[in-house]
Design a protein that fits this description.
heterodimer; A: seven-stranded mixed beta sheet; four-stranded antiparallel beta sheet; B: 11 strands; globular
Chain lengths: 111, 110
């Protein structure tokens, strides 16, 4: 399967803990995006990478959030000191031009 | 930023019925995609359609960019068509950031 892959699929964590998610884009896709989706809403843009450079961050991405894409391949999204409001589906997408392809998502539950 | 509105918010059909989902957007776009979100949360690409008409089996889509709307047609609906349908647009950023509508929840009964 050469689609976008995310890991883990589900994560339950206690409030205050740090969590890290991984995204492996479709090979050769130089653009990578993170989105967040809460219940009953459409996904909302968080951040964008072109190769290894992080070129835009949404205001939704507070200081507790950090994303990296070393060497322009896979990406990680870390949330420090998780809060209950961080509970959501975190979606990764990649593209070569403008058509985006999404992974299965990581569903985070903060208890 | 660009606004995206989808209608109807909910749609309930009997198997075999046809339906039309609408997406209105507030500004010119250089990308428009339709997705189906499956029960496990994954967004499945249906159409990449910034303009014109495309068909794929029982599904077809039309985007009239000058009038800022897109339509998704589902014919002879099946229970497996159930789920949430999202329209998403790129409002002109150079790198393809998508703005999503709120979605249409489709339920198809046998």
């Amino acid at each position: 399967d050469t689609g976008v892959s995310q890991d883990p699929r589900h994560k339950i964590t206690k409030r205050g803990q740090n969590v890290t998610f991984r995204c492996d884009p479709i090979s050769e896709h130089n653009r990578l995006y993170w989105y967040r989706q809460t219940l009953g809403q459409g996904p909302e843009f968080l951040t964008y990478f072109q190769n290894e450079a992080q070129l835009e961050k949404s205001r939704l991405l507070s200081d507790r959030f950090s994303a990296e894409r070393p060497k322009g391949s896979f990406s990680t999204l870390e949330i420090q000191r998780t809060e209950q409001g961080d509970s959501a589906m975190y979606l990764c997408a990649s593209s070569l031009t403008t058509e985006a392809f999404f992974g299965q998502g990581t569903r985070l539950t903060v208890v | 930023g660009i606004q995206v509105e989808q209608s109807p918010p909910d749609l309930i059909l009997q198997e075999g019925a046809n339906s039309t989902l609408r997406c209105n957007f507030s500004d010119s776009v250089n990308n428009l995609q339709w997705f189906h979100q499956n029960p496990w949360g994954q967004l499945i690409n249906l159409f990449y359609i910034p303009s014109g008409t495309k068909q794929n089996g029982r599904l077809s889509a039309t985007t009239v960019a000058t009038e800022r709307y897109s339509l998704l047609y589902i014919s002879s609906s099946q229970t497996t068509d159930s789920g949430v349908y999202f329209c998403a647009v790129n409002g002109g950023t150079s790198y393809g950031k998508l703005t999503f509508g709120q979605g249409t929840i489709l339920t198809v009964h046998p």
